[in-house]
Amino acid sequence: MGTNKRKPPATVAGGPKERHKRAQRHGNGSLSPQPASGLGAKRPLPKPKDKHHSYLEFVENKDRKKKLDFTNIFTRNPPEGYVFIPVGNPALTNFCKELSREQGVKVYFVSVREPHRGKGKASPEAYQTQNCGASGTQTFANQMSRMGFHFLSSIVDKARECLSLDPIADFVPGPSQAPEPIPESQTEYHAQVDGVLRDLFPRIPNTDRQIIIDHAFTRRERYRGEPPVGLSTSMTLARRVQLAVLAHIRHTHTRRVVQTTCLDFLVKWRGDEETGRDQLEEILREVVVISDSEDDESTDDEHVGTAATAFDSPSAR
To answer: Which branch of life, at top level (predicted)?
Structure first.
């Protein structure tokens, strides 16, 4: 029999050497020195390839304005304490809007469309029906019939004072539906139209505004001798401007959008391509089987009379 050599005893788990190692270890099991508490290491930011770069961030909008409190109104007569300001003076209108916005005063947008003539005097309800919806919402007639604003009289006086407007020389007429005469000077007329355009449509692009003025408010020889809407003497200047803007939008911005759809309908209705039902080689037929048995648990051996009804479907397979 050979002698069995005993192995040396293992290090006691609770020995001094083992306790020293456990004291030196950190939470991640590493023996390397760790940074002091409170000094969290941050991942370095990626270095951009280019020297100059840009990024987006959210910042406070310091140019934010208070919302203007306004209401659409269908009468030319201003409420008590208010003054009517017709369109055509964008500087005065904008100043009154800003003062009203800062003071939280309500502004009235006046949109009045005269009813058809020859039917007598219309009631206020008739004006409201033509210009506003059932709940006072915006309508197309409302947008095309704006003629001015009702501002608080004290705000108008302060705006005149700040803009150095002479109450006599810069007199603003009251509400009227009488058409204004067209000046003989083309330059003067263009200046009037430009003021109304800026007042009614303050966000219209400069290019579109200039095209409207040149096309609809300039005297020149016309096709078939018909004058444009801007030279009509039977409507007010505000009405002429709004109709000219609408015609420009239809001609320039919406015609290209609807042209493709109109072409599709023309081709479809004309039928030149012969793509109708009578040109299909096969059609899909739907067959509906109606059982005359009330027993849902009947087996295949039971013969139940059925009736088959066929319906032609216009779709092709």
So the answer is: Eukaryota
